[in-house]
Design brief:
single chain, alpha/beta, 10 helices, 12 strands
Amino acid sequence: MSDMRLIVAGAGGRMGRSLTRAIAESKGAVLVGALEAPGSELLGKDAGVLAGLPANGIKLSADLWAMSKEADGILDFTVPAATIANVAIAAERGIVHVVGTTGLSGSDNAVIKSVTNRAVVVQSGNMSLGVNLLAAVVKRVAKALDESFDIEIVETHHRMKIDAPSGTALMLGQAAAAGRGISLEEHADRGRDGITGARKPGDIGFASLRGGTVAGEHSVSFLGPFERLTLTHLAEDRMLFAHGALKAALWAHGKKPGHYSMADVLGLADL
């Protein structure tokens, strides 16, 4: 089979540059397009040079329709508005859409899912093997421990991250809620300040820390009577997310239309 032809969305950003490097370092994929926001000062720049590689002749462009004509997939770690704008074009072209964008609203996710009857979408709040294994374990532990064990999720990211809680924290919260058989939307406690009163039984708490250059740290604690269990994942370099996204794209190439997750890619969906 020939190499999968990929577009990197947000190619001028930190994650976009990592994705460009991951494609260059891997077999089975080739970069054919580099998408950047209209009006960006990086338009026209060489994607390879921006990623710290030799020039590859792929210039950053804002025209997804044109560049997607010869593509098989798009890797999209941008912002919600950009991702939603990309959804329709990717579906119309029939290319794989790997979505790692976080901060998406319920209506944004509804738009993404609306195209999956005719398009292949792989969407996850985190593309790493370790985090997806962690989510599977969190679901199991939450199911095993009753409400006498409170669940708290703490995440830390670099100072430039613009959304909170992180998509990974929310993914872990969803796993915990699934284990308990409850709705995360009804039981999430996403901010405490002032006189809050006692903790509500069954709630899943979130705390977000921001600073420095942290790629990502997530901990899920189960705090019970006289004992505590904490499960932690530490990301040391965002390249692990880039390689995970590339793995997802290669896995999805040729799959039937549908909405998939990294749990599907990694064979963890039944855990």
